[in-house]
Amino acid sequence: MLQNNEEYRAPSNLRDSDSIYGWISILLHWVTAVTIIVLWFIGKSIMSASPELLDAQRQLHVSVAASAWLVILIRIVWRLRSGHPHINGQSLLIHRIAKATHYAMLLLLLSMLLSGPLMVWSGGDPVTAFSWFSIPAPISESIPIHEFAYFIHSNSALLLSLLVLLHVGGALKHLMFHTDDTIARMIWPGKNS
Question: What's the mean pLDDT in 26-37?
Answer without folding.
Answer: 92
